[in-house]
Amino acid sequence: SFAEAYTTAAAAYASVLQQGKINAAGIDCGEKARDDFITALNNCDGSAECIETLKNTLSNDFSQCFVKLSDHDSEKLKSCLAQLDDVRKQFSSLVQSSLEQLLASAVRPRLKSTIDLFLDETHTPSEAEFAEMEASDVFVQQLVTVLDSVLNVFKAFLNQSVYNSFLEIVAGSVAVDLEKVILNATYNRLGGLVLDKQIRGLSAYWTTVASWCLREKFSRLSQVVSLLNVESVVDAEGFYKSTSLAWLLSPTEIKQVLALRVDLPGNDIRQLVL
């Protein structure tokens, strides 16, 4: 049957994808493992699309050609279509898991080493340091350069739909890793302003590389940055209670973020009722 044939193909592609792991060292070279991996990835995506088209076409044909089927025969046809749908899901799941594997083995290590440079900068700058950081944002420039390098390698080889999914996964990973380093630093008011500019710049970058907006990947991070930019603890309380945003941070996390501001009174933060 069609479903059995596609299931066999899915198993074969899974084997190639498992064997064709790409490491960070091989991301920029024409290794056979990389080529096999990407070819299998694109084929899985194409297979899922073909199966979806086949299922929809057959469903439409069945409804037009077999109008007097018994309930028993009708259930048989539905079962056949359901098998195709199950196989499509296998291919789609394989694409997703393979992209996550690609992120973990070949992409995230390179990005994380650059993101970790965030901690090399001061985040409690003086007025003079603030002016210098405002004029030249070295950290964002470095991160964007690495992102461009990584994304352009795969943009040339991946199907558009696979590449779009890849962008979402990478953007989510960058947001998570950025939040970790941000929460490992301390800030004054000027440091919060610099951070706000940096995150806005990165959000703008993602808008330029994607045909749709990936800002939701940075929603939690944006809330962290907003809290690090309040004038006072009272302002933080007012912002929390008045905003129409759906808060992604718990009250405990909000207090932990505010505690990173060295110029906000610790007692006021601890007594804050949210």
Provide an overview of this structure.
- With 274 residues, this protein is an all-alpha fold.
- It is 73% helix and 0% strand.
- About 4% of the residues have low confidence.
CATH 2nd-level architecture: Up-down Bundle
Cα end-to-end separation: 60 Å
CATH class: Mainly Alpha
User: Spans with pLDDT under 50 lasting ≥5 residues?
Assistant: 20-29
Got a strand count?
Answer: 0
Radius of gyration: 25 Å
Class by SSE composition: mainly alpha
Mean pLDDT: 84
Q: How is the topology of this model organized?
A:
Layout: H1 2-19, H2 32-65, H3 71-115, H4 127-135, H5 138-155, H6 160-182, H7 189-209, H8 219-227, H9 233-242, H10 251-258, H11 266-270
Helix pairs in contact: 1-2, 1-3, 2-3, 3-5, 3-6, 4-7, 7-8
Features:
274 residues, mainly alpha, COG4_C, COG4, 73% helix, elongated, Methane Monooxygenase Hydroxylase, Chain G, domain 1, Conserved oligomeric Golgi complex subunit 4, 11 helices
Quick structural summary:
It comes from Soboliphyme baturini. The protein is mainly alpha-helical and 274 residues long. The protein is built from eleven helices and no strands.
